[in-house]
User: What shape does this take?
Amino acid sequence: MSVSLSTTIKLPNGIEYEQPLGLFINGEFVPGKEGKTFEVFNPATGQVSASVHEATETDIDIAVEAAHEAFYNGPWSKLTAAERGIKLAKLAELFEENLQILASIEAFDNGKAIQLAKGDVQACIGCLRYYAGWADKIHGKVIETGPSSFNYTKQEPIGVCGQIIPWNFPLLMWAWKIGPAIATGNVVVLKSAEQTPLGALYAAKLTKEAGFPPGVINVVSGFGRVAGNAISMHPKIHKIAFTGSTLVGRQILKASAESNLKKVTLELGGKSPNIVFNDADIDKAVEWINFGIYYNGGQTCCAGSRVYVQEGIYDKVIEAFKKRANKNLVGNPFDPEVFQGAQVSQLQFDRIMSYVDIGKKEGATVEAGGARHGDEGWFIQPTIFSGCTEDMRIMQEEIFGPVVAVAKFKDIDDVVFKGNNSVYGLAAGIHTKNLNTAIEVSNRLRAGTVWVNSYNSLHWALPFGGYQQSGIGRELGKEALKNYTQVKTVSINLD
Ligand code: NAI
Ligand code: MG
Assistant: This one.
């Protein structure tokens, strides 16, 4: 089947735009060498929305060659750090000018509510601008070892970086990956998730407008086991950044070990505890536990999917949470009032519904939801299970949907034990008015981020990443620059 390199899409909110469909390699949209394409779906209806070109191993080779050439010989290699920053800032500006379109593509492709999609694009802009600012502030040190030598270090870029992103925040993950990699002078081959390639391609078009030379940013659509595997095995890619499931994270590490020991950073799953103490402001805490789990339809790596409530207020919190969850507006992602759109795919929908069945069979009480929402598309009611115990699968496994498991706890020791009773360690929430409780518990929890009287409050300046099986390395903030630089020590003999 021959598919053109772009198509006009009319979105449900009336916006009409030209959607690129090709692979963005060496500054151009091109068809895949094997002529393969695949369909993407609108999660709100389950209907096909577009067919995009698929990258196979040959296309990854071509993209890596283009990136390699750009890094070593192209104009990119001669730009000053300040010039790199200016281009990133220009890209941020283009995201701003295209906010409406980008957010609409995101809602259409992923099924998320347009109000959240706009927030995602705003966070992309913040992130790209933040890293634009870092570009010319990366430098090494002079290190004294004695009078007979002069030593200094340089922070050098790694070269060709492979970046594999998931479907839950397609544009935001694009920006989290591209920002620090480009600020530090690298070149990238980024693969979007097969469920959500549209925004990544539109953003690729913006990189051209921003003036990035060909080959610096390559963006391909394709499947994990084909294009993703080719990236993680590639001998000329020396760094890989992955966000997605813990299962695939292991495969990426293995591929690195079996190929060229490329440096690996992983941002993986979680089963994060969100803890409410007796002294918490109940209304506010309920607002945060609601936001903690139902934001982005629960398809959030740091979702507060285990809620622990202290026994003194347990019944009150359940009552209030039930009321609050039932008020979340679920439905048409393009309705500006809607908070929770559709789940991304039939597969994810089925997976989440199977966990709803598991929870019921395990004997947890359904306090809210527990069924699909509507009869078309992949919508699920905000679901609360109460009376959960540590041995239940719904307390241990990542569901990645609008389903939360609630349990009771006695005191700090009890909740620290339970909170840490997980193979993961991405995030945690603590709701209390007592500063000592907040600090003690945040110190004792094994989690990369702890929110106090808040939840899901990410910011591009704050490092984000996991303890234990939630990942390796940190994204965002100054920390992320480490992922994309290597230290060169130069020692000059003065004798
Ligand atoms: P996944 O981990 O399979 O997909 C994420 C990305 O990895 C996609 O771009 C995919 O094409 C790529 N990929 C898949 N297999 C690969 C391989 N062998 N080599 C290289 N790249 C590969 O996640 P999936 O299957 O879409 O979702 C399954 C579960 O994973 C979810 O239910 C959720 O629990 C978790 N997940 C966590 C995310 C997070 O933000 N930490 C994001 C997406 C999924
Ligand atoms: Mg998978």
